[in-house]
Amino acid sequence: MAYGSFYEITNPLSTIAKAHFVHWFVGNQLDSKIWTLTNFSGSGSGSMIDDIDDGYSITAGGGSGTTNLAFNDKRQFSNTGSVIIWTGRKSGGWAGFGMANVANSNFGTDSIRMESGTSGKIVFVTGSSSQGSSISTSLDFDLMESWQTYKCEQKAASADGYINGTLEATTTANLSRAKMQPMAYAYGGETTYVKYCEAYNT
After folding, report:
1. How many domains does the chain have?
2. Is pLDDT larger for residue 103 or for residue 151?
């Protein structure tokens, strides 16, 4: 029997496929049909890294500069059931990996992310109408200097944060109230590197 797609092999035709996005940051330039680099503040930049398996770099402007990589406000992922996965690392201070409603923002309102916090630990952050709730994991944020995989799952009444497949934090506070898009950021003259992103509705 011939099938029109792999999805039809594993699912009944009566089940509508949910959005599922997978992207590897490879090649000599960023795919501008998908990604947009936005300077929330300052004058940052981004570029593909001419090295094996090193992905894309996001460099923020100095001082309090914030530069975001996102979907240019194409919000395809539910605030009541979705997952975002990033493989990334940072060089220097602040970096974050997750989803947010607004690309040109400080990643605060209607968002979910893992980031390097001020506590010396990697923190899991959820935001509704403000910066939201921050939960410190047990992992030092220096771990973010090397490649790690971050997963944030947004549910209807809670949210979970994973690092390298291990659940590190969970919360029921300040959950996103609106659909979101993948987003990674760099802050304060520092550089964030990304090489893989996956997002899907659950």
Report:
1. 1
2. 151
- Predicted structure pTM score: 0.90
Task: State the pLDDT at residue 54.
Answer: 85
Residue with tokens 């792999």: 6
Flag whether pLDDT at 146 surpasses 70: yes
Q: What distance in Å separates the CA atoms of residue 46 and residue 94, rounded to the nearest whole number? A: 16
Whichever domain contains 146, its CATH number is 2.60.120.560
Beta bridge partners of 66: 41, 187
Residue at token pair 């194409």: 74
DSSP string, 16-67: PPPPEEEEE--SSS--TTT-EEEEEES--EEEE-SSTT--EEEE--STT-EE
In a domain, 13, yes or no: no
Give the span between the Cα atoms of 128 and 28, in whole angstroms.
Answer: 37
